[in-house]
Structures are given as C-alpha cells and as structure tokens.
Amino acid sequence: MASLRTFDAFPKTDQQHVRRSSRGGIMSIMMYLFLLFIAWGEFGSYFGGYLDEQYIIDPELRQTTQINMDVMVQMPCKYLDVKATDITRDINDVSKRLVFKNIPFFVPYGTTFDSVNEVRTPDIDGMLADAIPLKFRENIPDADLPEEFEFNGCHIYGSIPVNRVKGELHITPKGWRYSSRQRVPHDEINLTHIFNEFSFGEFFPYIDNTLDQVGRYAQQRLTRFHYFVSVLPTIYRKMGAVVDTNQYSVSHNDITYTSSRLYTPGIFILYNFEALTVVVQDKRISFWAFLIRLVTMLSFIVYIAAWAFRLVDWLLISTLGPRWSLRYGEPHDSSKGLLE
C-alpha cells in the first residue's frame, strides 16, 4: 500500500528544472483579448443582422398605382391643363383631381436647376424612419401678401390614379395639345417649372426622390421639356415592418421650336414600370448556426495562432539565439544535462 501511495500516474517536472517566462503570459493575454474582441464583433453582427438584397419578379398583379406631384409652373393656373395617357390610349383628365393655386412664382431654397438628383438606394433604417404615409391637403390657407406681388405662377399638387403600365403625364398650355374652349396666347406661355415632389405609389413626403427640388428654366416660350422616368418597385422589410415604395431614374432633354404648327410646348413625363422588384430585407441567422460559427471561428484562430507562435519562436532561436525565445526568458544550454 505504501508503494501505491507514492505512485504517480502523471509525473510532474520538478520546479528546479522549470524556467518561467513572462513573454508567454503576455502573448496569452493578448490572444484572449483578441478572441474577446472577435466574439464581441460577432455578437454585434448577430443581433444587428445583415441586409439581403434580391431581384424578384413582382408576385402581385397590380393594375393601378398613383402619382404624387407637387409642381410650380410660371404661368397662371387658368392657362394650364394636366392630362395622363398610357399605351391603352386612354386619356385621363387628371386636372379635376389636382389642386391648382395661383401663387407668386419663386425658387425655393435648395432647388437644383438643369440637373436631377443622384439616384441612390437609402439604407433600411433611414427608409423605415422616413416612411410615414401622408396625404396632400386639399387646400392651403392663403398667406397675407402685399398687393404688389404678382401672382404669375401656379402651384399644382395632389395624387392621381393611373394604370400601372407605360404612360405619359402632360402639363400643357390649354388649347395647344388638347381641345379647349380657349387657346393660351403665345406671349403668356412660360414653362419654367420646379418639382417639389414627384413620386409613385403611396405618398411618403419625407423620402427623397430623384426629381424632388429640381427645376428647369424655359429659355424660349415654345419649349418642350421631356422627362424619361424608369420606375423600379422596391420593398423594404425589417422586423415585421414592410414599406412598399418605388425608386426611379430620370433622363431629360428639352427642345425649342420656332413654329407651333407641328409641336406642342409643355412638360411631358414619360414613365415606365420595370418588371423586376428589389427586395431589401433585414435577416438574422439562427442562434445555433451563430454558435457553431463562433466556436469554429475562435477554434481556427487559436489553432493558427499556436502554430504561428511556434514558427516565430523557432525562427528567433535559429537566427538570434536561445535568449530571444518567446518561451524561455533565459538561454538554454543544451550541452549540460539536468543533473549537471
């Protein structure tokens, strides 16, 4: 029994034959801190999720949509007419659905002329924060303006329903494009205009669009402005919230005529809806998938770090000598045995 008491199945090295080094401890602490940093970042990515963007064919059959517009034209309202048409050859007199209000024409602060805003897809958090649906007011109270102000402009705003197909929106002087009881005199035509708002679908006033705060000067009275709009439906989804909106790109040109016999001056917006839909969705992996990923990543880092530590230690000993070893703080004399 005495021999069993002194038997040690896992013998230990005597303390007198062990060399301690602070370098290995420092490296271990640095490694633990690095692993903690990696784990912290992975937890943040797990709770924050990731964005998944996909192009899909619109699964819904949508027959109609609405155009939200807020335009100022440097002409009295009595001279302007707004109509919508599409490939079905239907002509919709949308003037009855819009509000026309005479105002002194002015240029709002921040308006950009002769160019359009940069097309960009907003981040999902900003989109959800700005996606507050509203409606245009049917009437804006008149401001007390001095009598010397000239009401030479027209403020046109509202939402109009249109077929969800390729179509056009026309803002023209009365009697020049469509039949009317009156024909606007040539000297009264001035199609300088500013878009305060132009969007498709549900009206979100806080979301910036390509034509918002964009204006064009009419250098001549018989000027025809063209806007070619390509509409791309976009759906944002995050934590149960869904925002169904549309983003669009615009190209434009203008043509000036010397004769009005063949061409009509006006503002012509030609729009087309893309068949594809962009879905921007916030997703998260399952907890078990995240845990397996985290353990795998940390284990791989530890494995690579251990081999890198051994390689660097071997290179230091081979080139600079044992005293530079990362494992031992003192040089190791291999010519002497442990008992010498």
TrEMBL record:
InterPro entries per UniProt: Erv (IPR045888), Erv_C (IPR012936), Erv_N (IPR039542)
Domain (Endoplasmic reticulum vesicle transporter N-terminal): residue spans on this chain: 4-90
UniProt main location, coarse: endoplasmic reticulum
Pfam families: COPIIcoated_ERV, ERGIC_N
Keywords recorded for this protein, A-Z: Endoplasmic reticulum, ER-Golgi transport, Golgi apparatus, Membrane, Transmembrane, Transmembrane helix, Transport
Keyword Endoplasmic reticulum on entry: yes
UniProt keyword Amino-acid biosynthesis present: no
GO CC entries: COPII-coated ER to Golgi transport vesicle; endoplasmic reticulum; endoplasmic reticulum membrane; endoplasmic reticulum-Golgi intermediate compartment membrane; Golgi membrane
Annotated PANTHER family: ENDOPLASMIC RETICULUM-GOLGI INTERMEDIATE COMPARTMENT PROTEIN, ER-DERIVED VESICLES PROTEIN ERV41
GO biological process: endoplasmic reticulum to Golgi vesicle-mediated transport; retrograde vesicle-mediated transport, Golgi to endoplasmic reticulum
Function: Plays a role in transport between endoplasmic reticulum and Golgi.
Endoplasmic reticulum vesicle transporter C-terminal domain boundaries: 147-306
Top-rank taxon: Eukaryota
Membrane topology term: Multi-pass membrane protein
Subcellular localization: Endoplasmic reticulum membrane; Endoplasmic reticulum-Golgi intermediate compartment membrane; Golgi apparatus membrane; Membrane
Taxonomic source organism: Eremothecium gossypii (strain ATCC 10895 / CBS 109.51 / FGSC 9923 / NRRL Y-1056)
Transmembrane intervals: 29-51, 262-280, 287-309
Family per similarity comment: Belongs to the ERGIC family.
Name of the protein in question: Endoplasmic reticulum-Golgi intermediate compartment protein
